[in-house]
UniProtKB/TrEMBL annotation:
Protein name, as recorded: ABC transporter substrate-binding protein
GO cellular component: ATP-binding cassette (ABC) transporter complex, substrate-binding subunit-containing
Source species of the chain: Cryptosporangium phraense
Keywords noted in UniProt: Signal, Transport
SUPFAM superfamilies, sorted: Periplasmic binding protein-like II (SSF53850)
Amino acid sequence: MAGLAAAVGVALVLSACGGPDNDNARDAAKGYDPDAKVTITWWTGQQEPQMEKAAENLAAEYQRKHKNVTIKTSAGAQVTDDLLPKLTSSFNNGSYPDVSYAFGSWAGQLAATGKTQDLADFVRDPEFDFQDFPKAAQETATVNGVVIGIPALVDNIGLIYNKALFKEAGVALPNKRWSWEQFRIAAKKLTDEEKGVYGTAYSISGSEDTTWHLWPLLWQHGGLILNGKKPAFNNEAGVAALETLRQMAVDDKSMFLDQTDEKYPQMFANGKIGMMMSGPWELLGLSDTNIDYGVTQLPGYNGDHQTVSGPDLWVLFNHDNANRAGASRDFIKWLTSKDVDAKFNLAIGNLPLRGVEQTTMQFAAYAQEYPGGREFFNNLENARQARPTVPGYAEMSKYVGAAIAKVLKGQAKPQQALDDAAVKSAPALEGS
């Protein structure tokens, strides 16, 4: 998945980190000499050969323009999920990179290590135009007022639907004004037990894929995930959100429950699921199928169609070396610029990082190659809130995911399950 922020519960022990003390009042790049000879390390987080090659080519291009800078590029770990434990280990022995890809859900944990740069002043430069990134991406990069990184990938959850299944069932296609009640009715009509077809699907693996799909419904009902550092997801809004899903899974049996996170996209591609709540990372795979699909924003509650975004980051680390810090900033500024990002994210099927990119030829080509890409880009406007960046989020996500799974399997009621998750989450959140 290009961009699903999987929550990994790895404890980052501050006392064991060693290395420079990250004083947020001190600029890590103060005294930076742009002409100094310097070597920086970039962990790209890209495991697919095509994506890693694209990253290596961009590093080479930057080096051709900056003869004094050497960029040592690697994926950092065999799978992106393993980057967090790899970073944890590298903090202990001082081998951590200057720049690393990171899931947005790790932001609070990484900030707590004391190893990140504070880029708050850097991103205020009008020339950088930090405001051109989606709001949720800006918020994800900011932990307690400290900007620890720059958006590396932006996405969101929308509704992808199989046009042929809708036609067969005689159901009108989804549109931007759809409510969750209309979604439920359609899911029930699309379900055909004899053919093994389900109206929709949901992950019950208990991972962040399970958890973050609930947040749009909670926000649409006016709810909060946290109130300060205290759980708030078990309020009336959270219960109503989970009840909406429970009705389809338990009462209607129109929802395929995926225990793996991976089966439902394959079933959609095979014509066995009518609608899936997913993101632009699906478009690359769907382009290799014959499925006639459409994309629109999520159904809404009382006209509110908020979604959730899973921005990932380029996190910049402090090695107590101004030239390494400054060179890292300049490289990431270049990498995330309008013209260069079009060569990277758009080239590998991701949404553009910046709003200004919608006017580029590359975006026009992307939208043509990946039907639904423009709809996902427009849906970024509905990503008005960000997931919390507190260190305890990963632990909380695990308990919320387990609660959702129990409810959708008919083993618990929404209020009971969410209350239980809130009690279990509280200690990790209070210690954030």
